[in-house]
Design goal:
This protein is of the alpha/beta class and 255 residues long. The protein is built from eight helices and 16 strands. It has one domain: Alpha-Beta Complex (Spore Coat Polysaccharide Biosynthesis Protein SpsA, Chain A). Helix content is 26%, strand content 29%. It is globular. The relative contact order is 0.19.
Length: 255
């Protein structure tokens, strides 16, 4: 099974970092968040990836082009123009296909462009969010329901803490609670190739007409994930993930 990762957006809300690199290449603990996502899929024996590149996609290509060297000890014999890998460190069993899907292409359009590379059930997620979701379980749920698509839904934590008010006075402060009864799109989809028929062109936004139509036709299932999930839309959220990693409390580190 392949995992498709959307990695081509501009990431304008985290411009502190994305002026120089695509958002999936922003590092958490010295590794791109894209790497963290792929490591989690790999835990579930999904090691073949199709990455939909766009904005500054050449940096993603350069990262994987040099991945072997970055993870090995190397001797550069400049005098004799030779390179010798003296100690190859363990590396991932990944097959990675990088596709330029256009800088301004929408999410559905990016998926449409990789149609010929996917001919069976596949996973798909965004390149800017991490989770400890049980991907194997989500795939089993998808297979059991026999629908065109399954979307993981999550209940994110509220951004701000809450206060309890009695008689026009604040009587208690409460920590940032979970999202209550509100379920949102958490990515980590499982799709059948039939989904490509719902994608029209580069302007197609996956989260609008395609998913709405699948829902109307009762072809969109859900997988509830009540564990850790965090997108990285802002610099503040990047700092949150970095802090969890540095304290060795990163729930998404399942490998």
């Amino acid at each position: 099974m392949k995992a498709v990762i959307l990695a081509g957006g501009l990431g304008t809300r985290i411009s502190e970092e994305t002026w120089k690199k695509p958002k999936p290449m922003i590092e958490i603990g010295g590794k791109p968040i894209l790497w963290h996502i792929m490591k989690h899929y790999s835990v579930h024996d999904i090691n073949e990836f199709v990455i939909c590149c766009g904005y500054k996609g050449y940096l993603i290509k350069e990262y994987f082009a040099n991945y072997f060297l970055h993870n090995s000890d190397v001797t550069f014999d400049i005098k004799n123009d030779k390179i010798e890998v003296i100690h190859k460190k363990s590396s991932e069993s990944w097959i990675v296909t990088l596709v330029d899907t256009g800088e301004n292409t929408m999410t559905g359009g990016r998926i449409k462009r990789i149609n010929k590379l996917v001919d069976e059930t596949f996973c798909l997620t965004y390149g800017d969010g991490v989770s400890d979701i049980d991907i194997s379980s989500s795939v089993k749920t998808h297979t059991k329901n026999q629908l065109h698509a399954t979307m993981t839904v999550v209940q994110p934590k509220n951004r701000f803490g809450r206060v309890q008010i009695e008689n026009e006075k604040i009587v208690e402060f409460k920590e940032k609670p979970d999202g209550g009864n509100d379920w949102i799109n958490g990515g980590f989809f499982v799709f059948e190739p039939a989904v490509f028929d719902y994608l029209e062109n580069d302007e197609t936004i996956l989260e609008r007409e395609p998913l709405e139509k699948l829902s109307r036709e009762k072809q969109l299932g859900m997988y509830k994930h009540k564990g850790f999930w965090q997108s990285m839309d802002t610099f503040r959220e990047k700092q949150l993930l970095e802090e969890l990693w540095s304290k060795e409390k990163a729930p998404w580190k399942t490998w």
